[in-house]
């Protein structure tokens, strides 16, 4: 699901579209805030992008770094994580840069997901490829530290901060059903 509100990282590439294949432009990227999804926001985004003129349009490649606030998957405290990601996306124009006539965008065998489109005013917007690259790179189970003790399952105390006095044996419940079957077989014999 696309975010409801986000900034644009866009560049007018009409001059590059008029240039020869192989021509290149470099741009610095900087955004204070980007909404990645309903719950996650990236801040202090900075990086660079290289825009390369190719036969079909523009190839945008680059790298970006950003800070994201995440919740520790064990103790639920907020933590800041620095992400560094690379992105690459092909863009094709909707209209001819010289004449303004509409262009046939899809080639035989292609679909709309194979590339992105420039706006009719030849603006290349990197917002979505950057947002998707950051989302894909988010840690699946973020931890505040590698030895985070988490929360007590009985009383909810943060075990990193204090000892609640409960025993906290870690058991592997994946085989609990088989153990119960073995116990019931023992009682039958």
Would you write up a description of this structure?
The protein is α+β, with helices and mostly antiparallel strands and 189 residues long. It has two domains: 10-137; 149-189, no CATH class. Helix content is 15%, strand content 34%. It contains three helices and seven strands; from the N terminus they run βαββββββαα. The strands form two sheets. It has a five-stranded mixed β-sheet with strand order 2-3-4-5-6. The protein has a two-stranded antiparallel sheet with strand order 1-7. Strand 2 and strand 3 form a beta hairpin. The longest helix is centred in the last third of the chain and has 13 residues, at 176-188. Residues 1-6 have low confidence and may be disordered.
Distance, first to last CA: 57 Å
Structural class: alpha+beta
Order of helices and strands, N to C?
EHEEEEEEHH
Average pLDDT, all residues: 86
> Which runs of at least 5 residues are low in confidence (pLDDT < 50)?
1-6
Query: How many domains, as an integer?
Result: 2
